[in-house]
Amino acid sequence: MSNNEYKEIPVTVSGVAIMEKLVLLMLLLAGMCAVASGHFRKYHFVKDGKSWFDAQSYCREKHTDLATIESQEETEKVLNISAGFNNAWIGLYYDKENWQWSNGDNVSYYNWTSSLSCTNVDSKGEWVDSDCYSNRYSFICYNDTRESYILIDQPKTCYEAQQYCRNNYTDLVSIKNNDEDKKIKEKANGNAVWIGLFNNPWKWSHKGEYSSFHNWDKGQPNSVGNNICVEMYGKTDKERGKWNDAGCHFASPFFCYNESCTDASCTKYHFVKTDMNWSAAQTYCRHNYTDLATVHSQEEAKQLSDILNTSTNAWIGMYCDVSENWQWSNGDEVTYNTRRAKLFCATV
pTM higher than 0.70, yes or no? Predict the structure, then answer.
């Protein structure tokens, strides 16, 4: 299939087949992101000062838990219900080392001993653990469609580099074996460069899920050994909404939340107008929301139809793997499927 071809999926709404051309491979199109069911949160600000653990107990007794915040949109929701606080607990806490590749690959190859949060290859070609937020290096992106490595000679923090690679290519480079390690060192050509390995030890209080959304203030977290709980700033406009690691025993106000939606039909969709290929759209949705859109029912198909301009194509999360099995990007079972039994290709 060429880069100018696509597969059509009909979305049925109230018995009418809406031929939305939801493209599944390499075209540059807008995308539909989704926030998974159970992630619609009603936040509550509690002014009474408590330690992090007392605040956690209070939230679990009165609501669902200390606040989980997984997007800038949710950050704004939290800030809009509060006023006049300096700092307040949220549900994030330090658990243990959890090294992972930026693109989600399993960490099967190591070349170092680490203690900090992000990884760069130094001028000698050795892996070095480095501060994600204050150090600035060049970096290496990769493009999975062309199987190529790209050296970007622009000093950035690790997360700035990650965002650049995701916006312009696929992601920061991952290294799975010794041969790939040699190729990366050759591409770096003696420069210190970021690669995609980072430590994400921060978990949310509710369900113990690792945080994929980061909103740390500059230079934070800066004292993990003693500060394993996280507060949100409410002071100046510049800092407002940013995170800081702090000692859990300090008495501070805090944010709780309630889950207000648990049924699969409550999935909330977000139409992203920026054109990307499918892999880049998947990465964007996972970073900012939950994943590319899944469709489990006619009700959800109608939600997509209502959001999407019928003259516009947009990615959804369905894809065909190497075994010719159709799957959803988030791993859900394909239980609702109105695509044609015999697929066909067309030219845009």
Answer: no
